[in-house]
Amino acid sequence: MYKHDEVLHVHEDLQSRLIQSALILFEENGFKNTTVNSIVIHSGSSKGGFYHHFKSKDELLYRIHESFINHVNRLVDELEQKDLPPAEKLDYILTHFIFVYDHYKAHITVFNDENKYLADEYKTEIVASRRKFKSAIETIIIEGQAADVFTKDIHPTVITMSILGMVNWMYTWYKPDGRKSLEDIAEEMKIFVFNALRSHS
């Protein structure tokens, strides 16, 4: 008989397998054309195993989003424990935000391409979970402007949405095997952002 932690490990492995299979199939065939049965077959699971972890295909897509948005929101929690000036806070959160693509590019790509099929109940939760990260960046910008570190010529919301848009859309062009490494991209994006934010006072 399995010990309790061994049972949990088996369940986590099955959940991970189901998500990985869904990522592959959603990328290849799209959310709409991928059935629960095809995910089950691809993952070597069973329908009972699928419905033990997810009540529907919609919930599975929501959990794909949850995996990477929880990761970036943990960055916010970590940052709140650090006593850093605004520029260092922005450097920290930008670097780690960009490096989300190191582990979650498939999750981000699938979600952005297929989220139009999500039920409204999940869309509401997604907006709420993304608001935390947006607010954290905007707060850093406001702090930097108050300290005359960042320009006051641009509204903090415009700066925040520009940063989010720039990084979020990386999924359309970033390739892990491309000419630029993620390290290179992070450094060049930060140069771009900090040059734009430089205070002229």
From TrEMBL:
Transmembrane segments: none annotated. InterPro entries: DNA-bd_HTH_TetR-type_CS, Homeodomain-like_sf, HTH-type_Tx_Regulator, HTH_TetR, KstR2_TetR_C, Tet_transcr_reg_TetR-rel_C_sf. Keywords: DNA-binding. Residues 12-72 form the HTH tetR-type domain. It comes from the Bacteria. Residues 35-54 bind DNA. Gene3D superfamilies: Homeodomain-like (1.10.10.60), Tetracycline Repressor, domain 2 (1.10.357.10). This is TetR/AcrR family transcriptional regulator. It comes from Macrococcus equipercicus. The lineage of its organism: Bacteria, Bacillati, Bacillota, Bacilli, Bacillales.
